Amino acid sequence: MKMNVLLMALPLLIGSCSDDNNSYNDPATVPTDIIQTVVKTTADLSLTVTTDKAAYKPGETVRFNVTDGTLPASARIRYRHGSEVIADENLGSTSWTWTAPQADYTGYMADIYTVDGNNQQTIYATIGVDVSSDWARFPRYGFIASYGSDRTSDVIASELSFLNRCHINGLQFYDWQYKQHWPLGGTPGNLLESYKDIANRDNYTSVVKDYIAQAHSLGMKAMFYNLCFGAFDDAKADGVDDHWYIYTDQNHSKCDRHQLPSDWKSDIYLVDPSNKDWQNYLADRNDDVYEALDFDGFHIDQLGSRGTDYDYYGSQVNLPNGYASFIRTMKERQPDKRLVMNAVSNYGSDKIVSTGCVDFMYSELWDGEDKFSDLHDILKANRLYSGNTLGQVYAAYMDYGHNKPEFNTPGVLLTDAVMFALGASHLELGAGHMLSSEYFPYADVKMSAGLKKQIVAYYDFLTAYQNLLRNGGTETQCDIAAAKSVVTINAWPPVLGNVTAYSKSVDGKQVVSLLNFRQANSLSWRDKNGTMPEPEAIDNLTLRMRAKNVKKLWVASPDQLGGAPQELQYRQDGDFVVFTVPQLKYWTMIVVE
């Protein structure tokens, strides 16, 4: 989106503003010269720019390429960390390189712009850059779900290109396996060319290999998916013992199982994840996987609470403790391989995280966790379990169960805005489609062209500002109000009809995310019927916020200027600062330094 950015110099404002918010919200008491346009935009960004990888190591070469649009003769490229410009150069080519700084785990925003004789800037493109030596600090997780003969190398490259543009740095290979208890198609010395997956789809080993290789070339991790305790009905012939299963009764007469459609390969029969013989059996099978395929690690799944279950000998099974034991065994067997485990409805999350063996927290959310406030509560609990050391990814399926052909863009963007503002990321983007179901191959609900464009801006924003959004910090209460009572601003959690302010202190900066619920019709992130309305943008929103000794104040939004930061003029009024935010649509981030 090409946008003309006119940063108008605000005059030094004199006079006083009452410390009483109600008085300030009275239109008669608001200084009129505060309420003015700070930024003007005139057009959409006109250039499309890409990078060659989803993430980079410190000092690595970043390769940029303009893939669409005409580069102006006077174009410049600017690299920023937060609002600080760390490099600014003439740009004479549509392809160029930049040496990533040595600072590890750092996000940057690059933008192409021009400046005219009146010092008016025009921004033509923006893109985020993640410089991190390990994906686990700032995970942006995607998925692969189909391995048929139609996935040619060109198709794979095209699918991964979009994920790379969204800076997806890890991929879950869902339902790639031959059987739950025997995931590899064949043996390392005799791989099957093709095999049926659990749904009797044709999977090709060469396609799995191609996805892994191309993912690695883009700097993405490749994680193979499997349950921690699943076996098919023919597992006994493959060496799985009846004594290893879990049962719904103390007399081991009925094995607990997950029923699947009758035309699928098998139901899934559940094994005790704490059983050492089972752990060693599956670790052996995983050794075969790692020998044959260049996976980086194991994405471990579960099925949530199963009620009361028993082992073969009649003792009650403690699944969360079993998960922890299973994870530790997998890590001991392959210490250099990565582990992630799903906590369905956050079940067992404390035990999973306490192992110290998983790369980040992964929670699959359902109706019991369908409120925006639940996103915060789960994140806060998981951070406590991990000692604030692990990142959070939500598997959260938008527009679940509706029959519309496309995702409802406002519902998706509002949910991503909240997740990202809280400091989490969203497992939603895959090879060829966005998730609307727990069955990852389901691809009937499509992304519109407009949603795809906006999703790119949101992931640029998540990446560029990861140090403010996801790198720790302390939650704070923000004293903030809007002038002339044009909007009502409340502190977290969200309230229908209001703007919600989520605030925290990060590295000496106050970071306030304004999240727009003024037109929202529900406080559920799921938007199951696809009816969340598009919010009305609020232009030139004048705010008064408690903040002392302000040195700099700036804002950024994935909904405006491609996420580029905008430094604002402000007036310090005692313990408060008064300023005008150019626009709030879904989400605007205010940073006070």
Q: Report the count of strand segments.
A: 34
Separation of the first and last Cα atoms: 28 Å
- Our count of helices gives 10
What portion of residues is helical? 10-25%
Question: What topology does this entry show?
Answer:
Elements: E1 3-5, H1 21-25, E2 48-51, E3 61-68, E4 76-81, E5 84-90, E6 95-99, E7 106-115, E8 121-131, E9 141-144, H2 153-165, E10 170-173, E11 186-187, E12 190-191, E13 194-196, E14 202-204, H3 205-217, E15 221-227, E16 230-231, E17 257-258, E18 268-270, H4 276-292, E19 297-301, H5 319-333, E20 338-344, H6 349-354, E21 361-364, H7 372-386, E22 392-395, H8 409-422, E23 425-427, H9 449-464, H10 466-469, E24 474-476, E25 480-482, E26 489-491, E27 499-506, E28 509-516, E29 538-546, E30 553-556, E31 566-567, E32 570-573, E33 576-584, E34 587-592
Parallel strand pairs: 9-10, 10-15, 15-19, 19-20, 20-21, 21-22, 22-23, 26-27
Antiparallel strand pairs: 1-8, 2-3, 3-6, 4-5, 4-7, 7-8, 11-12, 13-14, 16-18, 17-18, 24-27, 25-29, 27-28, 28-34, 29-33, 30-31, 30-34, 32-33
Helix pairs in contact: 2-3, 4-5, 7-8, 8-9
